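2024-03-11 09:14:02 INFO receiving multi-entity request
2024-03-11 09:14:02 INFO entity count = six
2024-03-11 09:14:03 INFO echoing inputs for audit
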Amino acid sequence: MRILLINPNTTASVTETAAAHVRRLIPAEIVPATGRFGARYIASRAAAAIAGHAALDALAAHVAGCDAVYLACFGDPGLLALKEVSPVPVVGMAEGALHLACTRGRRIGIVTGGVLWKPMLTEFVAMLGLTERLAGIRTVAPTGGEIARDPDAALDRLGKACRDCAEIDGADVVVLGGAALAGLAERVQPQVPVPVICSVEAGARAVIAAAGLAAGRPAAPAVESVGLSEELAGLLGR
Amino acid sequence: MRILLINPNTTASVTETAAAHVRRLIPAEIVPATGRFGARYIASRAAAAIAGHAALDALAAHVAGCDAVYLACFGDPGLLALKEVSPVPVVGMAEGALHLACTRGRRIGIVTGGVLWKPMLTEFVAMLGLTERLAGIRTVAPTGGEIARDPDAALDRLGKACRDCAEIDGADVVVLGGAALAGLAERVQPQVPVPVICSVEAGARAVIAAAGLAAGRPAAPAVESVGLSEELAGLLGR
Amino acid sequence: MRILLINPNTTASVTETAAAHVRRLIPAEIVPATGRFGARYIASRAAAAIAGHAALDALAAHVAGCDAVYLACFGDPGLLALKEVSPVPVVGMAEGALHLACTRGRRIGIVTGGVLWKPMLTEFVAMLGLTERLAGIRTVAPTGGEIARDPDAALDRLGKACRDCAEIDGADVVVLGGAALAGLAERVQPQVPVPVICSVEAGARAVIAAAGLAAGRPAAPAVESVGLSEELAGLLGR
Amino acid sequence: MRILLINPNTTASVTETAAAHVRRLIPAEIVPATGRFGARYIASRAAAAIAGHAALDALAAHVAGCDAVYLACFGDPGLLALKEVSPVPVVGMAEGALHLACTRGRRIGIVTGGVLWKPMLTEFVAMLGLTERLAGIRTVAPTGGEIARDPDAALDRLGKACRDCAEIDGADVVVLGGAALAGLAERVQPQVPVPVICSVEAGARAVIAAAGLAAGRPAAPAVESVGLSEELAGLLGR
Amino acid sequence: MRILLINPNTTASVTETAAAHVRRLIPAEIVPATGRFGARYIASRAAAAIAGHAALDALAAHVAGCDAVYLACFGDPGLLALKEVSPVPVVGMAEGALHLACTRGRRIGIVTGGVLWKPMLTEFVAMLGLTERLAGIRTVAPTGGEIARDPDAALDRLGKACRDCAEIDGADVVVLGGAALAGLAERVQPQVPVPVICSVEAGARAVIAAAGLAAGRPAAPAVESVGLSEELAGLLGR
Amino acid sequence: MRILLINPNTTASVTETAAAHVRRLIPAEIVPATGRFGARYIASRAAAAIAGHAALDALAAHVAGCDAVYLACFGDPGLLALKEVSPVPVVGMAEGALHLACTRGRRIGIVTGGVLWKPMLTEFVAMLGLTERLAGIRTVAPTGGEIARDPDAALDRLGKACRDCAEIDGADVVVLGGAALAGLAERVQPQVPVPVICSVEAGARAVIAAAGLAAGRPAAPAVESVGLSEELAGLLGR
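2024-03-11 09:21:47 INFO inference complete, emitting structure
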């Protein structure tokens, strides 16, 4: 199986971290792609809105020959737009990790980096229809980008946030979200009394599970466009 | 009062139609802006995702000197992202029209062009928290773009959809949504037993009402970016 | 434009305060009306139930010649009943202020005087369908009536309540509710890190915005009655 | 046990019908009271708003010496206001009948007379928090008042509405609502494949069940008033 | 009236406590039945799942000649299954007590023994559709079984939990839940500022209220089974 | 990986059908287990309540040496109870299939055999918190057991139900639910315009995805019991 892993921010080292983590866990070929334009790290609604465009742009450029697409940014910018135009199944990191987490606990906690993600993820969980399963969302001050540059400095803050999800919010499973946090779940786990799930791994497992099922996608109407990459214009104009 | 009217699709004639309609109704200076890139008409999630970026791009280029921003696309692509970074109040066409419609009826119907808008608007209404007020959403097959090119051909279909909102869905007010449908509400009204509201007008009235109140906006963290317009990069990096 | 401003409690000085505040802000003729019977200040469900009748009674007596009705009591007693029988648009103070506040922030806080208002407003917000937008409702011990008599004594308590809405409840905009609190928002604002909206002003702006749209009202069936004012009996019996 | 049965409309014959029906079924002394002012029959929001005042007025006049209050109008105008000031338990006809119906079926249908009741009851059910249990509300054109004057003429229409609740809406129990419809449930039952509950009887059974439990009521703050009956002013001013 | 009181756990002394408490309050013949298999006390989902089977088994064995069934375990294991196959009305202890409590207060608190009951009751309340009425659920560490063996030791903890429901969660009525807690409500009441309702008594009152109404039950299809008691196999195979 | 596949009804041939289907698709060792007691097919709440006990009984008897448990009955009787006491992850067939389906479509349709399953599955979907994602549930008259005995006879009815889910209810993916329907999805697919998912396969894929993640389970308190199998008593009493 060949999976297109799209990191819709513009920092290639985050793409590589996530792809390497997935390659260690999943028996599939991983094709990494990084956003061509937009914020270095996505930590605001404006950056996420631009990233939705960048993710479409990346999908149009690289999807040929792939069996599935892994939108590997926790918060899944442009998720439904990608599903609309993609010729193969698309699963988002937060989407996949949260649905899988639901089979491991009744009430899900989410911990990630960047304080603006809390309202954005609250709405994302509502869009998935999973609000009732949500125990709470806790963010730590450093963004994913800052955590990626110095993970050790963030471990205690992440551990405390996960613990508070369990002990204060009542979560019985916690998703540690973010491509930049790949692999930190197992390091944080000893500080937390409930299972901590790595969003990069869980999302990848959900991609594998979903990709195997029979495909099918809504047919979006063709539309003319201007100022887009040739591939994206082609995808919209089909 | 000086209002930046952003049409985030790339068809300048739609911008002019909406701006002209607003100028007739509202005693304010209207500064029109059209998306620099993206679909000619927005009638799918992919087009809307790109339009969110285009709307940010337009705001960054033209907001200086304006007192408020009117995001004049029914469906409001990028609405919360624009509110996040704008130095002045931003109101979306669907947002403003729907909140105003709530004061005129208990249960709101929505009619617009383009069949893919139904699920998109269903989620948009949920994001506004107004689902309980929604009687139903009905779309007609021609998109806003097609209706703009030949409004007469669409009048009966729009009238029937509005009537069905009232008689089948139980709406006691109907919003006729879409920049390309500016001015059609009064032409459709004779066919419909409940008030039909023009989204372009109602949204503009909501901009005026909201703009007068004391301002305030969340401070988004500065973030470095690549590949964006200079103005948009500046807005994100502040 | 000629607006009937109904204060459904029986304290004429509150009516005058609200009318004067609106006249300063809104270019419209204001026709003030005070409830003929009921509680001096509305701070309980029983007082509000009686005020619904008093508001209908005032509308029947004074609506002739007006273009719109402003039900100027935060909590809007009798709102839907007035809309049902009024020949012109009716907007309530809480209704209008809350819908307008929704365009200025994602999560709305409400602060008012009188501890019994909290459950009453909780249900009112649910009736508007805006529960999901509500960050929290906080009341201070003095009722609107007591605050009207000595506003300076209440400023700090109101400021603290608004601040708690922002800092504890997560509101990004706060509505300071109550006819008796007209004009206090700007005095409280310096103590609060998010915008504070004056319900009297915001409600009035919503009246103006709504009144301009094409009218339409449900036709209530005529019903015979006893023991009511001649005008109200006439309105019901039409 | 002595129960104050308040009919908040102004038609004494409806009070007598309901009281007689209750007396046949319930071993308690029934003290009937009719509204002093307001509509002859309650079939609109305006009439219901006035009836809330009239019900308070009746409670103030007659509650002395009673053990419980039965607000015997399906739709329960003023219910929470009465609970707020009453020295003894208050149960509304719709409130009691619906909660009892919930123990007899998963999904509840409601049938009553007067087309404007549908939105009013929809909101009432939401206020009770029972929306999820509601299969549907169906109204017949004649109002309760008209049905009371000629019940035979309405039986088939009521039967059809109850049947549609079961067969189309999926109700597994139907509440036939309205003081004026006392006793019609057993006459309609043969036409309906699921149990039909008489709201007058079910509400009365709920009064008995609730009245026996230990009392307790919220303490409303005293408030001065004008233009009310001496007893009601006394109740508010305590 | 003859009521089958089913205690679906396997501790006969709890059955006797509940039956004796009901006999003191309700003028009906009480036929007690205890689960033939399963946990001594029900304080987990596994024990509750087994108890659903045991309750069906008891109903099949003892319902003949009874007019109604009282499923006397707070949490009502198997409630809808019993309603499905029973020839007479079935009311659960939590079901009946909570619906009755709704007529006594707007927001209901629940206090019971056994920490695992909190998520179970949260879901049960949701299944009843009463989530919006719920102020909070608080459990004390000893299970119902432990409280039954030494009620005096638990009084202060129960009192504190009820008080917290009122003062922190905002409950205006509290249900003290559990067959093993029969009669403790009146002993806890002096410590609590809002009414405390005994679930055993309130449930029994709801059984009486519901049993008097006309019956009717869904017809479950007959199904062959193995390994069940002869009576239960007969009930399923009818 | 060694997976315990529990069929909680008492028909061993259904267990074998499901196990064989899973073995063809999933590279894992499947240990099949059939309920020791209860209904031959589960098509009512009573049968499902007994099956919850039977599933616990089977888990206690056979879980030793397994890495995960697949509760292979669509409707997942006893799901949360099994999760509570199991030493390894447990995923239910409906749980797993529905969460996976959510990544393939916005609105999920469900088709299964046995008319009583509709309300049961409606509540199950609500318990999962996925109600908002549900387009509709349609059942065909033959039960799973009857379909298993003669699948060809049911294909057209199943196809029509799936088609109605898509065309009338608006589903963009349909789950064909039931152990007895293993393998029918691909045969039904040609009649349906949206993807049809086999619940047996999808559930198994979800088991694999979930089982790989780090484990963790709530610790249920030990409880004494009577009349249960030695293994189940041991599991509860640990």
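2024-03-11 09:21:48 INFO post-check: Residues 95-199 of chain D form a domain with the Rossmann fold fold (CATH 3.40.50.12500).
2024-03-11 09:21:48 INFO post-check: Chains D and A do not touch (no CB pair under 8 Å).
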